[in-house]
Every structure is written in C-alpha cells, then in structure tokens.
Specification:
mainly alpha, 1490 residues, two-stranded parallel sheet, globular, 0% strand, 65% helix, 2 strands
Length: 1490
C-alpha cells in the first residue's frame, strides 16, 4: 500500500523575437481568429502547459482552410514562424513533440510550403560552426527523423548538406577533443556530443535509405560517396581510439558495420569480409581499395580485444539474420562470432567490458534463434545442445551465473534461456521432455548445492521447457529443500521466483490433465502443507522471508488456498500458540491473514463477522511473546489493498490496545516496522476521510453513502478525530523525563508521521491537525528530548518541532526563550561531548524565533538595527548569522586562552562544542538563497582562519607518535614522569605550558599556582559545580584535541560546498574563493598525512571527502585537476623514501590510506577511472618490488593503502581487475624477512579474501556460502593460475630433503587458505580452459606438512581440483600410498595428511549424489576393499592416536552414507553390489569395535 505522488510536468514556455511578433501582428485579425492571431496569442502566454493546449488548436483551424490557402502570405508567414519555433525548442521540451504531432496532420496542399519553410530554417541550423553549439543542431536533426513526416521531408531535401555537416562535425569534435586533452569536464561533454553525432549519422542512413538506393551514388567521384567514406573513416578511428568513452566505441562499431553494409558490393560477400576481420585473416588484395583506404586499420592481424568485441556487436545488430538472407557465409559468420566472443570472455575482465560482453552474447543467442528458423541442417547440428559451441556457452554460464554484478547475472540467465530454446529448435519434432540434453542438465543442476544463485534461474528456465512434474519425479522433496534455503535473505528472492515458476507451471499442468477440483488436494500437499509447517515451527529469518517473498506469490497464483490455510491453522491455533522463538499456529494464521488482506484477497470485516477469526484471537496476536507475530497482527489491521478503505471502530480499538504494550520494544527492526505500519494506517485515515468529506458534500448520493459506509460520514469522521487525539495523548504521555530510548523513538517517530500525513494544503477539509493538540507543556516535553544521550532521539524531536515550529515558537515567552538560549550557550562549552549536540539542536530550533535577536542576543552582541529594517532578509538568515557571530567570538577567545594552557581549555572550555554548533547552524542554511552575501563572506573567511588556529593548537597532540600515550591518569608523580617522556617527541608552541611540563591538579596543588593565576579570567581553578577542584586526566586533553580536529574537518568540508559548481568570471558570486578551497585542500593533506590518532584522521577524512566530491563536480579546470596533482605528489613522496618525510610508517600508515581513498572514490565511476588505474599501477609495483634492496617503507605504505582500497565498497567492481595482483603482492610479502611487511601483507590478504569470496555470512568456516568453484575462480582471475601453481611448486620443493618432510614455508598457509575456499561443481566439464590437474600432486604433497592446520587445509584444498570421474582413481592412489604395516621411521604426519585428504575427497564425492552409475558402484567397492587392506591403521598396531582417529572418521563417514543410500533405495539388499559392499564393510566395522 504505497501512495505515489503525481509528478508535475515542467514545460518551458517559448518566446518569439520582435521580428517574428511583428510578422504575426501584421496578419492577425482582432474580429476573427485566424492562424496568425492564434500563434500570437500562444506566444503571449507564459505557461508552457497553456501553450501546449493552444498549439493543439492549430490543426482544426488549418484543416478549415481551402486549397487556395497554400499561396496565402499569412499562411507562409505562420509556417515560417512555426519552423523557427520548432528548431528553437529544446529536445526534451514537450512542446516540441506536441508541435511535431500536430504538424503531422498537415493537409496535403500545405505540405509543399511547409517543407519550404522548414528547409530554410534547417539550412540556417546547418550553418552552425561553433563546436559547443553542435549539440542543439544534432538534437534537431534527430527529432526531425523521429515520427515527424515534415522533418523527414526536410532532411530528404537537404540530404547532401546534412551529410556534409555531419562529416565536418565529426572532424571538428575530434580536433577539439585533442586540444582539450586533460580537461575531463570539457572532454566528457564532447564525448556525449560525439556519441549523439554518430547516432544521428546512423539514423540518417537507416531512415533515409531511399536516398542511397541504386548505384549512382557509389561512383568514387560522387559527393555522397565521398561523404560516406569520410564518415566511415571517422567512425573507424573512433572505434580504434581506446581513450574515448566505451559507449562511443560501441556505437562506432555499430556505425562501421552499418556503413560498410550500405557501401559494400557484392552484398553476399559481406559476411565473409567481417569473418576475416574478426579472425585476422583479411588480405588487402581481396578487399576494395576504398575499404583499405578508409578502414584498412581493421585489416591488421591482431585487433585489440575491445575492438573485436565492438565489431561483433555491430555485426549482430546491423546484419539481417532472419530468413537466411546471408546464406552459408552468414551461418559461418554467426559461428565465428560465437568463437571470438567466447575466447574474449577469458581475456576481458574489466567490469564495463565484461558487462558488454555478456549483453552481446545474449544478442548472439537471439540472432542464432532467428537464423535457425530458416537455417541449414548443418547449422542445426552445430547449434545442437551437444555441440562444442553450446558446451562452451554453458561453461560461460556456469562461470558467470554467480557474478557479483547484477547485470551480468541477468544476461547470463537470458543466455541460458535462449540456449534451451535453440536446442528445442534443433530437435523440433521430437519429445523435448525426454531429451538427453535436458535430462543431463536437470541432473547436474539438482546435484548443485542450493547456495548457488544461478541454480534457481536455470531450473526456472528448465521448468518452462520440461514442466514441473518431470522434475518432481526425480525428487519430490524439492519444494521442502527450497523452503529450507529461504532462511538466507540473499537467496530468498531467487528461491521464491523458482517456486513461483514451479507451482504456476504445476497448476497449469494439473488444470489441463485432470478434471476441475480433483487435483487441488495434491497441489496443496506439495506447495502449501510444507509452507504451513515451516510457518508454525521455522526459525525467525526463514518464516519472515517466506512471508515476504513466497506467500504473496502463492496466494496470487491460487487465492482459494487461503481458506485451506485458515481452516488448518484455526483448528490448531488454541493448542499451538507458539513461543518467543517460534510463531506457532496463531502466528502463522496472523501472517497468512496479513498477507492476504494486503494483496486484496481478504476483507477483514467479512472474516470477523463470519466468526472465522475472533477479536480475542487478534488481541492474542497483538501481545504475543514472539515480536514478529505482534507485527503481523498489527499489519493485519493497518495494511489494505485500497488506501481509501474505511478504518472501522474495532480496528481503532485494537490499535489502541496494541499501543498500550508495544511502544517499548527493544528490537530496532521491530520499532521501525511498528512506525511504518502505523504510518500506513494514518494514510488510510487521511485518504478515506477525504472520500467521506466528498460523500457528505454530495447529498444526491446518499444511498451510495449508506451502502459504502453503513453509517453517516460525519460520525465516522468524528471517530477518526477522537482516535487520533487519543493516540497523540498516549504518545505525549510516554515521553516523560527518564522514559526509555525505545519508547521515545517510537513515540517521536509516530508523532512525526502524524504531523507529516495530516498537513494538507489550506482550504482542504482536514479530519485532524496535530497543531491543535499542542500546548506549552507538550512543547516543553519535546524540548526536553534534546537532553537525551541518544542523537537519534534529538534528531526526531528536532524534526517534529520543525514541523510544528509556528505553534511551538508562539508558545515561548521571552523569559523562557532567554533561558533556553542561555542553556544552549552553556551546553556548547560543556566537557560532555553529547551536550554540545544538544546545544546545536536547541540553537537550530531557536533561530526560527523572530524575537531571538531582540530578546537574547542583544546582551551578547552589538545590535544591528539595519538588519531589522531590511525586510527582504529572512528571520532564519538574520538569526543564524548572529548566532554564528556570537559562537565565533567566543571560540576565538577560547583558542587564544588555549594557546596559553591547553590543559585548562580541556578541563573547562573544550572548543569543539562551539565549532559543532557553528557547523550545525550552517547545515540548515539555504546558501543558494542568501541576502546578506557580504556579511556571510566575512564570516566564512573568519571561520576558515579560526579553523586553522584551532587546528594549530590541538594538532601536536594528535600528530604525536603516541597520542594514546596521553591516556593514563596523571595524578601521581610517576605517571607525570612517564607522560613527560612521551611529550618530548612533540614540538610544542612556546607559550603552551602543557607541553613544557606535565601538570598535576589536586585540591591543594601548590606547584604551578602562579601560572594558574595568570589565567584567572578563564578558570581560576578547574572547579566543578560543587566548587571542588577537579582532577584532570590526560585523556580529557586527548578527547578535546581529536574532537576539535573532527569538528574543524567537518566545518571545512561544509564550507567547501559553498563554492559554486559553475565557476564564472565574477569571483563575487561565491561565498568562498578558489584560493581558499586550495588552502583547505592543503590543510586536509597536511593533517591526513601526519595525524597519528585514528579518531582525528578518520574524521578529517570525512571532511576531505566532501571537498574531493565538490572538486570532481566543479568545472574549473585548475580545481578539477587538484586531486590528480595531490595523488601524484603523495605517491611520489611514498616512492622517494626521503628520510625527512613525515609520513607515518606505523599504525597501518595512519591517514595515508584514507587520503588516497578519498581522492580515488570521488572520481566519476562512469568515466575511464584514470586516477584509479594510475594509482593501482604504482601501488602494486611498490607492494611487490622487483629489487629487494630498496627500502621496505614504501612497500609497507603500498600494502596498507591497497588494503584500504580493496575494502572500499565505493570503488565497487572497478577494483576487481587488480585483485589478482593484490593476491600476488600479499603472498610474496608474507615471505619478507621484515615483520612490518609480513604484518601488512597479512592484513591485505584478509581484505582480499573478503573481497573475492564475500563477507562471512555464517559461523561455519567451511560453509560453501563464502566459496566458489575452481572454474569460476580461475576464470575471474586467470593470472593467479600460473602464480599459485608456481608458488605451490616452490613450497613443496623441500620434500625430498633428508628429513623427507616439508619445511615450514611462510606462504604455505596462505596458498592453502585460497585453494581451500574453492569447491568442485557437478557442472565441471571438458570445455574449461584451465586444467586443474597440475595442482593435484603439489596439494597432495602439502598433506605431509608437519603443521596440523596445513595438513587439514590441504585435505580441503584437494577437493576442487579432482574431477568427479577421477575421484575413485585418486582415492585408490592415496590409499595405496599408505604403509601396509607399522615400519620403523614411518612418518605419521604424512599418514595423517593422506587420511585427511581421503576423508574430504570421499565426503565430497558421496555428498554429490552421483550414486546411480555402475562406475560409481565399482569405484566405491574398490575403495572399501582398499580400506580393508589398511585396517591396521585403526588397530593398536598403530601407536599414533591421531591417525587412528582419522582412519575411523573415514570409516564412520562411509557407514553413514551407505546407510543413507540404503534408505533412499539407491542400494537394494537384493542386488549383488549390496552384498559386495556389505561384506568388507562389516569386517571393517567389526575391527573398529575392537
């Protein structure tokens, strides 16, 4: 139930110049309306919507004209004006489309003069020579060719001129782009203009094909031919230019193929030419001279991968694949494109290009489907499901169906769906449901784990091909398995979509196969009964996601199932009330009823009146001990399908009952749901009250009133008003001082919803107004909420007071106002950090009071009477300016005193509170609409200088090498001595006695009393309210310093936003100058690179981000290039290893990673991300240096910075191409002899594991949720294949030493950690480009490590590298490698590692459920037999208890799985294989018992 606000259409009105107006006035007639007077009237209107209505009257007037009107000067003049009007309007202005639509109905006899007028206007447009005005001409050309017959006729007449213009335009933009190299803003604008130009060129050729039909224009001396050659050459250059935006290159690829298709003869050989281009086999002798001259660069043997991709796209989109028009050459080209695209899929890893590739592969499948309709038998064979191309496409699908990008996952689903249709087309006529290809796919998919997201979409596609019944015949428990998966929110949407596809298909199957009503019980047993069991007994997450995702779809498919659910749940509701952990039948009933009502399947009044559900039942739900049951019961009352449905008296009473017990819920999510649901209820009351008011006003529909409401509307409206008043009274009642945070949150949030929903425009009848419920006591209650220690409560109270500020401020007398203002000023300098937040909200509220300056500020500041005289200045601006001035004066004085003694400042007047209040005041000021600009400029300048002064006072503490060293209490001489040692590292200001001597402040402190007396005017002694002298801890100093740095950073970040994004030559327009912005940037750079305290540089980072985001949007070239300059400088400083550098090499490089993060994250994501590429190239080269003799400090910095970048979610998929290099750097860094490098490498490796495999989503470290298949891993990071292989070989090369044991290698654990995160997939096939076989011997060798953890991990790591059909052979080889008896010198580590590898490999194999083939049965028998030969390992002959236990683990697992197979009837007792297994297994079990 969501209300959508109607979007107001903004239409810019057009204006005619003096000459056009005179022309119309000459022909207009006052006594009668003609075309000229109508246009004149239209031009006089200043509202775009009214002008649209006026233009629509043109055609009826024109159609009344006779045949002779074509020569009328008035008509000619009007058509001229219409033409000029059309070409002057913007492309997105609705007026332009309305005008074109009207002119499409122009009578035939007026077409010739109309075309002449429009041709004259267009010819003038084509004379444009300014590059930056080309966009307007291009928009006009495009609009002329889009459903505008008159415009198309104009372009047809001016075809050559338009071609010439486009030819010149492309060359001009190319040259202008070259001149503006480095100016990214101008270049981006030119790129978009270039993109439109290429599209218009293509549109011209496609829409006006009759102009280029025939062969006359194809002579080399023809002007059209030369223009086409020029366009082709320009587009080829754009296609090959990697510096352009990818969209420009893609569109150029489309244009090149389109132009070649129009120009090439004979057309039959065009597919062969494109095939040769893609395969690099083009010979210059075999192609026309014009082709070599204009796009000969495409004939090179090796085109860039991206160019190949764009040519493939062009061929698929621009050639006609239907009806077999291209013959065998076309079929060959189709297959060649597929092979090229599939080869590119392993090379192109950049996010944007990979997304394009997936989309182009989906286009290929559509083209293949079109070609198959009339294709040759040979094509059907080559595109059959068993063919090589389809096999490779399936490999691509299996690799990318779990890709992190939604776009690629979506395209992968389309590719799979089209592949199934392609196969169906190739086997047309046979029974698809029993087809081996489909059967094999279903089998493989069902064997996959349910955590693979691609499984759901693929199964859904197969269901549409073979039907649900055929899949359920293989496994009837599939619905239950899918419902079990829905406890994971990331999988629930996919699972519910699959379930919807299955039960909808199943219902359709039953409907066609059985008589009506006979199948419903069976359908309910399969799809509804498991749902009800889980709703009653399932865990919280599972039931929540099932209700949200699955239940609405089930009821939509079959609404009649609701009565079946209610019947079953109602019968057991009394007996199964549920608990705090389970919903029970009552909770399940509430959930079903809520969902049904919200989706329009149920009327609450009907089921309550019929006795199906009683009021007591709903009350039980509203106070249930399971919080979600309460929410569902509340949702049943609040959510309806229609927003205008009347709220009954029973519902209101139940809502009041709910609010008595549930406003103090401790769960934040439950509180949010309560607020959201009650908001929906208030919306219903508001919407239905408007309907009731209309019904009351319309007395003629009294019968309708009686039928629809069953009681008079006024009575219902009174009930509404009484209900809302009682709700507000209850909410204000629970806001007493000392009430809990949950209660305050709920009450304030609900009150805010009420204030927002019931604030309709004046003049409209309103059932309730919160303003009328407010009195001074309730305003005081809201103001007291500012004192809460939770900022969330402060924010809610402030927002509510803002909505009620007219009433709230009028209720404040001058005395109370003065007290509040005094309290805010006092709190702004409190030593408790949350007090300054209270002061900020209080001041932000008070600045809206008109009398603030007169009542409160007069005694603080000099009164400015001129401001009162200036009525154009808003109250908020005047008051805010005065408050900021007052705070600024105070903080400047406090900074002056802090320079004398920072200890005194920290104890009695910490400055950060004042700065926080200034920042808060600035946040709510409308800077785009200020009147007192000169005053604000002065204030901004003073604020910047104040920030620098404050920072200079506190920065020595946060820039200390050990700022946390100031934390211990300095209340005794020993602590003071230790503190003094730390402070020697700090370079203090001369007057700052805190840094010269560690003070000890006690009640009778005699030392330093003389110095303290000097600051008598600030704080004679540091006393509390009880006049006792306070002990000051060094921690107070540290808190004061880093919070001051935080507020200064946020303030400077806010001030940077004041710079206008569109810089003009007039420097007076902005409140802040470019020079000030540059200085602020240098300030941030200094503190981020030198601060040691995390609190200080983290919050300096927050301000710096605001600055860099502003710079990225600014069109000033000098500002726009600053991030690039800063980045180059800091990278150069990191590389230089300068001993005088102040960069912090400890503390994970402190603020340096934050600094570089801010610079890179603010870079536009849709561009080329040049800064990111440059930085990653430099950092990776530093992180993995080739020359080990270099200093390690740059390497440590690089590793720490890379860690921060890989963790930054804002960089998204743009960082993924550098993940493989990061892994290499971390693994190599782990082998460094320097501890700092190893430490940073460990942290980087951890960040990379999270980036690759995702955030850990469960406690089980071996869960497959955070793993991926070996194929997917090496396909996404192909460079890691040789690297990991080489490193494994290096690690295991120490095996053949004298000890015959592996040495403990530093990187062994990291390698196994990566490989252990991989898992095998039943989808692994023969089309994988990278074989996993070479890893197997090295991983097996790792099992001989003397480290237990490494042996265990090698067992897990071996699993993904052994193909399913090779598992029995590998297991037998491992088992035969075990010793036959206890021999002297036997290495138990090796035996243990081998047994662990056997255990994990066998476990994975048995769990894959591939247990129906004879090969599997034979292999398992051989394994059991071989196990029997090594039985001594489980006996006392083996002295090692660890290996004995490992052998028994394998034995227990075998017994468990064989018992499971027997239960599933996969192994029948009467079969020979059963007896062959049982005999050796029984002997093994007997030995184990001994």
């Amino acid at each position: 139930m969501v209300l959508k606000k109607k979007k107001e259409v903004q239409v810019d009105a057009f204006f005619l110049d003096h000459h056009q107006l005179e022309k119309l006035q000459r022909f207009s007639k006052a006594e009668e309306q003609n075309l000229a007077s109508l246009l004149l009237h239209c031009a006089e209107l200043r509202n775009g919507i009214q002008q649209i209505q006026c233009i629509k009257q043109i055609m009826p007037l024109v159609k009344q004209m006779d045949q002779n009107s074509a020569g009328d000067p008035m008509v000619k003049a009007c058509l001229d004006v219409l033409g000029e009007m059309y070409f002057s309007l913007g492309a997105k202005n609705p007026l332009k489309k309305v005008l074109a639509s009207s002119l499409n109905g122009l009578p035939g006899h007026l077409m010739v003069p109309a075309v002449q007028s429009f041709v004259c206007c267009l010819r003038e447009e084509l004379k444009t020579t300014d590059v930056y005005l080309y966009r307007k001409v291009l928009d006009n050309l495009a609009s002329c060719m889009e459903d505008f017959s008159l415009g198309r006729a104009c372009i047809k007449n001016l075809f050559e001129e338009v071609l010439q213009f486009l030819q010149k335009l492309l060359l001009d933009i190319q040259e202008e782009n070259r001149k503006n190299h480095g100016n990214r803003i101008v270049q981006t604008q030119l790129m978009h203009d270039l993109l439109i130009a290429i599209k218009v060129s293509m549109m011209l050729i496609q829409k006006l094909q009759e102009n280029i039909q025939g062969s006359l224009w194809k002579h080399s001396e023809s002007f059209v031919w030369q223009s086409m050659c020029s366009l082709l050459k320009s587009c080829t250059n754009f296609l090959m230019d990697a510096t352009l935006l990818q969209t420009v290159q893609t569109t150029s690829g489309l244009a090149v193929i389109l132009f070649i298709r129009a120009m090439y003869e004979p057309v039959e050989e065009l597919p062969s030419l494109i095939s040769d281009l893609l395969l690099g086999t083009t010979e210059h002798l075999g192609v026309p001279a014009w082709f070599v001259r204009n796009c000969g660069v495409l004939c090179t043997a090796e085109l860039p991968d991206s160019v190949l991709l764009f040519i493939c796209h062009g061929a698929l989109a621009m050639l006609d694949w239907k009806n077999g028009s291209m013959g065998e050459n076309g079929e060959k080209l189709l297959l060649d494109i597929a092979s090229v695209l599939l080869s590119l899929s392993s090379e192109l890893k950049e996010t944007s290009v990979a997304t394009s590739l997936s989309r182009i592969l989906a286009i290929w499948t559509n083209s293949a489907l079109a070609a198959l309709v009339s294709g040759s038998p040979n094509l059907k064979i080559k595109l059959n499901g068993n063919s090589d191309i389809i096999g490779k496409l399936l490999e691509y699908i299996y690799t990318h169906w779990d890709h992190p990008l939604d776009a690629i996952r979506h395209q992968t689903k389309l590719i799979f769906k089209n592949l199934l249709q392609i196969h169906q087309t190739t086997i047309a006529g046979s029974n698809g449901k029993s087809d081996p290809f489909f059967a094999r796919l279903i089998k493989h998919l069902l064997n996959l784990d349910w955590h693979v997201k691609g499984k759901y979409a693929s199964l859904g596609c197969l269901v549409e091909c073979v039907g649900t019944e055929n899949i359920l015949q293989l496994d009837r428990t599939i619905p239950v398995q899918i419902l079990d998966v829905m406890s994971d929110q990331s999988l629930a949407p996919y699972a519910s979509d699959l379930m919807e596809t299955m039960f909808t298909n199943h219902k359709a199957h039953f409907t066609l196969s059985f008589q009506e009503g006979t199948w419903i019980d069976q359908w309910h047993n399969i799809w509804v009964s498991p749902l009800l069991v889980i709703l009653c007994e399932g865990n919280h997450d599972q039931t929540t996601y099932i209700i949200d995702y699955y239940l609405p779809k089930l009821l939509k498919c079959n609404p009649d199932s609701l009565s079946y659910m209610i019947k079953i749940l109602e019968a057991s509701a009394d007996a199964n009330l549920g608990s705090c952990s389970t919903r029970g039948a009552l909770g399940a009933l509430m959930a079903c009823l809520r969902t049904a009502r919200a989706h329009g399947h149920l009327e609450l009044s009907n089921i309550m009146s019929s006795g199906l559900v009683s009021t007591e039942c709903i009350k039980q739900g509203l106070v249930h001990q399971h919080s979600q049951v309460c929410i569902d019961a509340l949702g049943l009352l609040c959510e309806t399908h229609r927003t205008t449905e009347t709220v009954s008296l029973e519902e209101m009473q139940l809502i009041q009952f709910f609010m008595m017990y549930n406003l103090n819920n401790q769960s934040p999510s439950v509180r949010q749901q309560i607020v959201s649901l009650l908001r929906k209820l208030f919306c219903r009351i508001q919407e239905s009250s408007q309907v009731l008011y209309k019904l009351e006003q319309n007395k003629t529909k009294q019968e309708l009133v009686e039928k629809s409401t069953r009681m008079p509307p006024l009575r219902i409206l009174q009930q509404y008003k009484d209900f809302m008043s009682s709700v507000c009274a209850r909410l204000f009642e629970v806001l007493f001082p000392g009430s809990s945070h949950p209660t305050r949150f709920c009450a304030l949030s609900i009150l805010e919803s009420i204030a927002e929903i019931f604030s309709v425009p004046k003049g409209q009848a309103q059932v309730f107004q919160l303003d009328q419920e407010i009195d001074s006591a309730r305003v005081q209650t809201l103001i007291q909420c500012f004192a809460s220690t939770f900022e969330e409560v402060k924010i809610l109270a402030f927002r509510l007071l803002m909505k009620l500020r007219d009433v709230a401020l009028n209720l404040q007398d001058s005395e109370n106002l003065d007290l509040l203002f005094q309290a805010a000023i006092d709190l702004s300098t409190s030593t408790k950090p949350y007090d300054c937040v209270t002061a900020s909200y209080l001041l932000n509220f008070l600045v809206y009071h008109k009398g603030l300056q007169h009542i409160c500020l007069g005694k603080w500041l000099e009164y400015n009477s001129q401001l009162d005289e200036n009525t154009s200045v808003s109250t908020v601006e005047k008051n805010t300016l005065a408050v900021i001035k007052l705070l600024l004066v105070n903080v400047e004085e406090e900074i002056f005193q802090a320079k004398k003694s920072l200890l005194q400042a920290a104890a009695s007047f910490p400055m950060y509170g004042r700065v926080h209040c200034i920042n808060g005041a600035l946040q709510q000021l409308p800077f785009n609409n200020l009147t007192l600009v000169s005053e604000w400029k002065e204030i901004v300048t003073r604020l910047i200088l104040m920030s620098y002064s404050l920072s200079a006072v506190v920065s020595p503490v946060v820039q200390s090498s050990s700022p946390e060293g100031l934390i211990p209490m300095d209340s005794d001489p020993e602590s003071a001595d230790r503190l003094q040692m730390i402070l020697h590292e700090i370079q203090p200001q001369d007057t700052n006695d805190y840094f010269m001597q560690a003070k000890i402040l006690k009640e009778h402190c005699k030392e330093g009393s003389e110095k303290l007396s000097e600051t008598k005017n600030i704080c004679m002694e540091i006393k509390g309210k009880d006049r006792q002298v306070c002990d000051v801890t060094a921690q107070m100093v540290l808190v004061c310093c880093w919070r001051s740095m935080k507020e200064v950073s946020l303030l400077l970040g806010t001030l940077c936003k004041l710079l206008p994004s569109q810089m003009t030559s007039e420097p007076s327009e902005g409140l802040i100058t470019v020079e000030q912005v540059k200085n602020i940037g240098d300030y941030f750079k200094h503190h981020l690179l030198q601060s040691r305290h995390r609190g200080a540089f983290e919050l300096a980072y927050a301000g710096f981000v605001q600055l860099t985001e502003m710079l990225s949007r600014c069109n000033s070239e000098s500002l726009h290039k600053m991030p690039e300059h800063w980045l180059s400088c800091v990278l150069e400083e990191i590389k230089s290893c300068d001993p005088s550098s102040t960069l912090c090499a400890t503390r994970r490089s402190a603020g340096i990673p934050f600094y570089i993060q801010a610079l890179l994250a603010s870079e536009p994501k849709k561009g080329k991300t040049d800064l990111l590429k440059m930085a990653m190239k430099e950092l990776i080269s530093l992180a993995a240096p080739l020359n080990e003799s270099l200093s390690v400090i740059p390497q440590v910095h690089a590793l720490n910075i890379l860690r921060a970048l890989y963790r930054d979610t804002r960089l998204g998929e743009n960082i993924m191409p550098y993940v493989a290099d990061g892994i290499k750097a971390s693994v190599l860094g782990f082998m460094s002899p320097v501890w700092a490098v190893r430490n940073s490498s460990t942290l980087l490796f951890s960040a990379l594991i999270t980036r690759i495999f995702g955030v850990k989503r469960g406690k089980d470290e071996n869960s497959k949720k955070n793993r991926m298949t070996g194929r997917e891993f090496f396909s996404r990071f192909p460079s890691l294949y040789p690297f990991l292989l080489k490193q494994l070989e290096l690690v295991t090369s120490t095996l053949n030493s004298e000890t015959e044991e592996l040495k403990i290698h530093p990187s062994l654990f990291l390698l196994l950690l990566i490989l252990g995160r991989l898992y095998p997939s039943p989808m692994d096939g023969s089309h994988s480009a990278l074989s996993t076989a070479p890893f197997i011997p090295f991983v097996i060798r790792c099992g001989h490590s003397p480290m237990y953890r490494c042996r265990e991990m090698s067992g897990r790591a071996l699993v993904p590298f052994v193909m399913a059909n090779e598992v029995p052979h590998t297991l037998l080889a491992l088992l035969r490698g075990l010793p036959d008896s206890a021999a002297r010198g036997m290495r138990q580590n090796s035996v243990h590692g081998t047994l662990l590898q056997v255990f994990h490999l066998l476990q994975s194999y048995l769990e894959s459920n591939q247990c129906v083939s004879l090969d599997f049965q034979q292999g398992l028998h051989d394994i059991i037999t071989c196990m029997g030969a090594k039985i001594w390992l489980a006996q006392r002959l083996n002295p090692c208890l660890v290996t004995r236990a490992a052998y028994l683990d394998v034995l227990v697992m075998l017994s468990t799985h064989l018992g499971k197979f027997q239960k599933q009837a996969l192994l029948k007792p009467e079969t020979l294989w059963y007896h062959r297994w049982q005999c050796p297994l029984c002997s093994l079990q007997a030995v184990a018992k001994h």
